[in-house]
Amino acid sequence: MTAKWSARTGGVPRTSDRPEHTGEPVRRPADTAGQASPARATGAEAAVATDQPAAPPTRRTPGPLDPAALAGGVAGATALAPLLDLVLESLAKGTVERGGPTPAGSPAAIAAAAATAVEHNPLPDKGIGAEPALAELSRLIAVGSADPADPRCAGHLHCPPLAIAVAAEVAAGAMNQSLDSWDQAPVATELEPWVVRALAELVGFQPDQAGGVLTSGGTESNLMGLLLAREFAPTQRPRVYCSAAAHFSVQRNAGILGLGEDAVVAVPVTADQRMDPIALVATLMADRAGGHRPIAVIATAGTTDFGVIDPLPELAAIANAHDAWFHVDAAYGGGALFSDRLAPLLRGLDLADSIAIDLHKFGWQPVAAGGFLTRRASAFDPLTRRVAYLNPTDDEDLGYRSLLGYSLRTTRRLDALKLAVTFRALGRTGLGVLVDACHDLARHAATAIDAHPRLVLAARPVLSTVVFHFQARHGDPDQVNAALRRRLLAEGSAVVGRTEVDGRIRLKLTLLNPHATTADLDALLALVVEAGEAEDTAEATG
Prior knowledge:
Elements: H1 2-9, H2 43-50, H3 76-98, H4 107-117, H5 130-144, E1 153-154, H6 163-175, H7 186-203, E2 211-215, H8 218-232, E3 238-243, H9 249-256, E4 264-267, H10 277-289, E5 293-300, H11 312-321, E6 325-330, E7 354-358, E8 370-374, H12 393-397, H13 416-451, E9 455-457, E10 465-470, H14 477-491, E11 495-501, E12 504-510, H15 518-541
Parallel strand pairs: 1-11, 3-4, 3-5, 5-6, 6-7
Antiparallel strand pairs: 2-8, 7-8, 9-10, 10-12, 11-12
């Protein structure tokens, strides 16, 4: 580590009064009476006590691996460099130690490892120093994590982030901008609207008319869509319509907003898992006759299990006919717009009043990288707030604009940087290649499952999810499929998803690793079959 530090700092000059790092925090010198300086008033405190002008504070001059060093400022990069070296080294060691897509062992063993790593107290009276704290816990995270970059980690909509996006996260974290006022994030306040504009153009909105903000993900974006729908058509007996396969956040968000979870009506789906427009119209008419007022139709563009996309043009027309807000949850499917092959599946997305899109799915960003977009920027008017200490009118009139009125959050980090870097580096075409690679993997997996005598495919994949099950011969099919998945987790050999279709347990591959190969998938399916056979035999003999 010392060699890396020396190589990075090279000829950085040292001031004559800068103390060499000794492994302990830099301390103030004792005063002239021999008393430690924390016991007496200094700086501004001394000025108040003596009515004398305050002496300038002593500037800290931290050495390498000082746990109290700052990441920003002129010396920030110098302080950060050896720490990043240490993190990368620890991550590499931990990944090798883990040796697979997820840690082997029981949940209790993983919990014990976490407790041991912090000695059952992450906040001791006296710190242990930067190097052991950072190295040990970075290694712990690598050893104990499910690694989405491993091709055998395919359980959820949980993508492996691009290295370039993670590098951008370091820059964003170091500068620690807060996007609730211009003076806390000058250029960040100007950068995010450009990223939002690019996303608005991607979904087919007129970028000069659209509005948007970056969010923590689909749940927050769906909450905002439902909030604006409530403000668009306030009523005493509201109804919200989504498909039976819609994300659970729709119902929960309705409860949070005071609409009531029972205000959400689950519309039946057709055989291909898409919302049935005929059933929607029938349900709407029946509710209207009962005195209810439809305030929103929420379509899904990429369901969590099957990745299917609701018939957007038809649903948009129905919502418009009933003067209801049309929100599309495209958290999963929105990234398919990067692909020339898959983009036509989202025809009609531009008819939405609002859209949720997640780039920590098909976008390969570290969490969080959600987006919420509106066809008209004026839709955000209900969120507008004027706060004297954040966005006074005279400041905004002179160009010091604020993004406060676009978000449900006040303090908000610079998530736009990693997106801007990724977009600039890869472009739409480059991201489309990654989307197509994942789609190809899903098609290969489906074909391989179809051809295997012990595996049964539930449906042909639309995007990158593949639902199937292992065909038990002796034991209860649901128990065998549930147990084989847990066996793979306990072995640390694979992460496979689980869901239910028509009340039966099914397995799921969610393929978001564009660098995985067909051979990787064949090996993963072989592990599933091996675990299934072991559990089926255990059922028969147990």
